[in-house]
């Protein structure tokens, strides 16, 4: 079994708001003299234990260059999976060891606070640490939002660039639809004049033109919709926090292109129907 691990204190999950799914978290009774315990994330539990029922199971960890086995550790809890490397990378198998049973020489401190003044918080933290040892170095604090922002910088740029290209493509498609349908309706000026001369009503002619134009556009929209749905698998890796099947985006595109088709059909049709039938009959 391959998995990464973190050595933590009992309040780590509360500070990070990592949900406990089953079992319990570490507490003061988990000491170096008590039976060794471990907590696993949901990905590890589901991948390596049937049905994800890992609580109560024993695992043996290996460490060092010789992969020396450690004493068996009991899994006492399952927590939600977290993304540590990048928000674009799916959570990986991970387990947690209490610092009281396996202390580390170096550690990162996670602080949850309602204070917005990070400088004041850093000074307070430095004073607290120096009460234990004045020689300990306290690095600068880095808000979690800043670290997440750095991680999202490249995906955000990619999405902005892709969104700009998509917007330009949609505008060009709308202009193309307008031009083709407007030209097609304008070419039917003579036909419209003949129908009007034979007694066709204006609203009937308008409905006919709109219906015929929309039938052509509808076929293209349906084909484009299915093509877009087929390509969502390629787009999913570029998205975070947004579904590749965001129906509001599909609705917006359909609305814009349908509106372009409506104006392209309506305006030339109105102009053609306002032409005197005798003039329309001579139109070439």
In short:
The protein contains 8 helices and 8 strands; from the N terminus they run E-H-E-E-H-E-E-E-E-E-H-H-H-H-H-H. The chain is an alpha/beta fold and 284 residues long.
Kindly list the characteristics that best describe this protein.
8 strands, 52% helix, alpha/beta, two-stranded antiparallel ribbon, 284 residues
Q: What does the main sheet amount to? A: 6 strands, mixed
Specify the overall morphology: elongated
- Order of SSEs: EHEEHEEEEEHHHHHH
Into which percentage range does the β-strand content fall? 5-15%
Question: Quick one: how many beta strands?
Answer: 8
User: Gap between N and C termini, in Å?
Assistant: 79 Å
Q: In total, how many domains does the architecture comprise?
A: 2
Structural class designation: alpha/beta
Radius of gyration using CA atoms only: 33 Å
**What value does the average pLDDT take?**
80
* Helix percentage: 40-55%
Number of helices: 8
Low-confidence stretches: none
Walk me through what this model shows.
This protein is of the alpha/beta class and 284 residues long. Helices cover 52% and strands 11% of the residues. The strands form two sheets. Strands 1, 2, 3, 4, 7 and 8 form a six-stranded mixed β-sheet that branches. Helix 6 (202-236) runs antiparallel to helix 7 (247-274). It contains eight helices and eight strands; from the N terminus they run βαββαβββββαααααα. It has two domains: 4-110, no CATH class; 151-281, no CATH class. It starts with a strand and ends with a helix.
